[in-house]
Amino acid sequence: MSKKSTNLSEKAGVVVFARIVTTVIDLAIVIATIQILSKTDFAIIGYLLMIHEVARNLATLGFPDSVFYFFERVSGSAKRAFVNQTTLILLGTALIAGIFILLVGYFAPSFLTEWSPDSIEQVQHLLPFMALVAVFEIPTWPVTNILLALDRQKESAWYEMITSLLTFLLLVGPLALGYALDIAVYGLVAYGLIRFIGSWVWMRVVLPEGKLSDSEISVRRQVNFSLPLGLSALVNKINRYVDKFVVSILLPVTAYAEYTIGAQEVPIIRVIPFAVGSVLISRYVEFQLESKKEELLELWYKGVQKVSLLVVPLTILSIIIASDLIAIIAESEGTSYRNAVLPFQIYNLIVLVRVTHYGSILQAFGDTRGVFYLSINLVVANLILSIPLTMLYGINGTALGTLIANLYNWYITLRRIGTHMELPARKVLPFPYYLKVLGVSVLTAVPIWYGRYILISEANSVLGLLISIITYLLLFSILGTLLKVITSDDWSQLKNWLQLKFLSRN
């Protein structure tokens, strides 16, 4: 393996590892709040966090991503100047995000028509504090990318993990100690302030000296680069909440709480293609600029195959353990989320198509308009399908509408990528290998799913979950190896990754 390939592999390992750890922490926040709070309070905190995330993505746009592009074009004091410039831009957009959150609070009674007056009043009381969190947090959002651009991958990983852990401690901590929801939101404000100060100190340490006037990149140039990608990312983020907005408007607060649980792609699986794609995009660009079409296609296929081997079986596993998983995570005495099981299973079928970061290959061809068009297309399709299906079938219909919209947009995406690669849509992905992995995954799942309820009591969720996971992974490993879906090279790479060798290198 070449040194360049090794560096890419190590960088991918660090990024994936950090994303998985932070995702586990984020998942722990959800589990803890479900267990501690009533359905109504959980719906309220879920709504607050949803509005905050939408506002944050509205404000950050593509400015954090611009770090990767421009850092290679500046040096010395200009690096700090560029970071200062980016921070000031984001501080301005953070204020706009704060105003947006305040407006949502003002119009909350018009949006949440099916919610109780007390719930709406609490949302309106707490949203101004979420606006304050946004003002502190948004200017720090490029820090992770800055550290990666400076080849400080380990520091980037630590930064992500520390900030996620801080969120957990200051949000869940007060709730676990018996304090009201208000105190937990005040804890988030403290998190935002600590993150802002800590990030400022961290950047002063790692960046070379420089003044804002040293910047070699104009604001206009940075905005022109960042805006198209930022709008695409924003629309994609909004799309994650379109169906939830539909449920919040058309159905009662308890249904919103159930759908919040059910409408979740297993986060640990979801981060894999994004993390790998963020590492490979530079190679895609390199091959495209050098007109190395065969090398580009080979790297693209290889990336898809490696991600498929992880994402597809884990997704099928998440579907067959859905009932036990939700029972353990969400249910408690007197509180049931059984209605969330089917939406969860439907929703996670979407993950089967997330075997690569499709936007990375479009960006390599300079097709930022295509990225934006596909984002808009998905939001519109999701909205058109979710409303009638929600009215007909409740939260099960909402999940089904989201699935159909994603499958339709996936086909459009493959066609667009195919025009750049000069390939028909059916050859954009290595479908023979993908279908083989999918077939082995489903074949493995059938006896596990059936045996779970024949051999173990349905009420024994913990034992059922553990046995299902262990037997599924064991059986898939055996069948995958025998059918040559999993190669000796795959086992070797998995061993190195599990040993975290990428973290031990200098």
End-to-end Cα distance, whole Å, is 18 Å
Query: Low-confidence stretches at least 5 residues in length (pLDDT < 50)?
Result: none
SS-derived structural category: mainly alpha
Strand content: under 5%
Major sheet description: none
Fraction of helical residues: over 70%
Q: Helices and strands, in N-to-C order? A: HHHHHHHHHHHHHHHHHHHHHH
Oligomer: single chain
* Broad shape: globular
Tally the beta strands. 0
Q: What is the CA-atom radius of gyration, in angstroms?
A: 23 Å
Question: What is the total number of structural domains?
Answer: 2
Integer average pLDDT: 85
Question: How many alpha or pi helices?
Answer: 22
Structure description:
The protein has 22 helices and no strands. By secondary structure, the protein is mainly α. It has two domains: 208 residues, no CATH class; 264 residues, no CATH class. It is found in: Cell membrane. It holds the Pfam family Polysacc_synt. It comes from Rhodohalobacter sulfatireducens. It is a multi-pass membrane protein.
